[in-house]
TrEMBL record, chains A, B:
Keywords: DNA-binding. GO terms for molecular function: DNA binding. This is TetR family transcriptional regulator. Residues 27-46 bind DNA. SUPFAM superfamilies: Homeodomain-like (SSF46689), Tetracyclin repressor-like, C-terminal domain (SSF48498). It comes from Leeuwenhoekiella palythoae. Residues 4-64 form the HTH tetR-type domain. InterPro entries: DNA-bd_HTH_TetR-type_CS, Homeodomain-like_sf, HTH-type_TetR-like_transc_reg, HTH_TetR, Tet_transcr_reg_TetR-rel_C_sf. Pfam families: TetR_N.
DNA sequence: TTAAATTAAACAAACGTTTAATTTTGTGCG
DNA sequence: CGCACAAAATTAAACGTTTGTTTAATTTAA
């Protein structure tokens, strides 16, 4: 499905509002108003409010695996080096799209909607396969330790970011992140480094 | 504010529904129906739907610090030993109350509501203070390494759990967690151990 | 007999979607 | 280029529901 400029505007506005006020908390009237269009256009273009959400998710979650596999494929670099870059990539991507992930998290644990987000889940599966192959190669090369719960590595990366994100009001105060710039810098440096160190420690040292 | 049995029933039902269908997705009519009361009783007892939520959060988030400090105070046990129990306590508590935390996560990053959750934030601050003192004592005893981002430890513990929780549909398939019992067991053992190992590695080994 | 608890009904407001009419745009032809 | 016609885009209005809250009357309990 190709999107014209007006449709892109709707998707963009809707994404912001859904994350800000929740899916149920955002009315099609508000979306229309913010996007400067008539309310009927949402049904006209996307069929319904729910389908607009589905469409949004599918189109936001593509291209990640390509970046991931690019890093993994660079076998002239050390395993730790690549691992650090994988972590940085995950954090960067999830931070950029944190609004859409908030919606997905909500809807995946929401019994009211029939949304399955099959695209999201299959994408996640493929990403895990790539990461698994990389880690197992590192284990075979005796760089990474033997017993690692590989499927739980990504929850530790993304979960750390998201718990910071969901409780940002708390951590902004703890770390004195008063401006948006200082917050961005914190995520790029301190938070990312923390997660990198954590993963390196976890998959390197035997207990 | 003391609660009679009927009020407790309302709070209990509302918590379940809010987490399941979201705050906006849950109508007072549904709460009333599930709790077996008249819709007017919600306003009668709590004032409004929003105040019911506030009340819910305050009453669910107490008592944790006591448990936390009890573990820390046992200075006959090793630092690693106590750290593992702290992690287990965090996971256990958060898992037990994951529904209320989902609501808080949502509302804290929701601009529509004016809810501040001051009780939640101050509680979190006190917990962090306790953890910080414990970690710093461990550093002084040369058991833990020097450079640790202490405020980010809790996001790593709870974030790992929550990312697993929010994507449970995915991990249920990955790990074959078909029954509620197997899922409970997984959280209690594999997931908890993964987080424990991760934190031990992180705060022990210098890079 | 007084206060608290409970009820059904009504309230206005907001919801997502559809309708039918109108305007804008695109295309083929002379 | 200019006209005619069809398709697409856009609009205001209306649709029937559902929303949270309040009212006023009634029942229950102290």
């Amino acid at each position: 499905m190709e999107l014209n400029d007006k449709q892109k505007e709707i998707v963009q506005v809707a994404e912001k509002l859904f994350a800000e006020y929740g899916f149920d908390g955002t009315s099609v009237r508000l979306i229309a108003k913010e996007a400067g269009i008539n309310i009927a256009m949402i049904s006209y273009y996307f069929g319904s409010k729910e389908k607009l959400l589905e469409h949004m998710v599918v189109h936001r979650m593509s291209g990640f695996k390509v970046n991931l596999d690019e890093i993994i494929a660079q076998d002239d670099r050390s395993y730790h080096d690549r691992l650090n870059e994988i972590v940085a990539l995950y954090v960067k991507r999830i931070h950029k799209n944190n609004r859409i992930y908030k919606i997905v998290h909500n809807e995946l644990t929401n019994n009211a909607r029939s949304l399955t987000f099959e695209h999201y889940l299959s994408q996640k599966k493929k990403n895990l396969d790539s990461v698994t192959k990389f880690i197992e190669a590192g284990q075979k090369a005796h760089v990474f330790k033997k017993h690692i719960e590989i499927p739980l590595l990504i929850p530790s990366i993304l979960g750390t970011y998201f718990h910071f994100h969901y409780n940002q009001r708390f951590y902004e105060e703890s770390y004195g992140l008063n401006t948006p710039e200082s917050k961005e810098l914190f995520i790029e440096t301190t938070l990312t480094k923390h997660i990198q160190k954590m993963l390196n420690a976890l998959i390197t040292y035997e207990d």
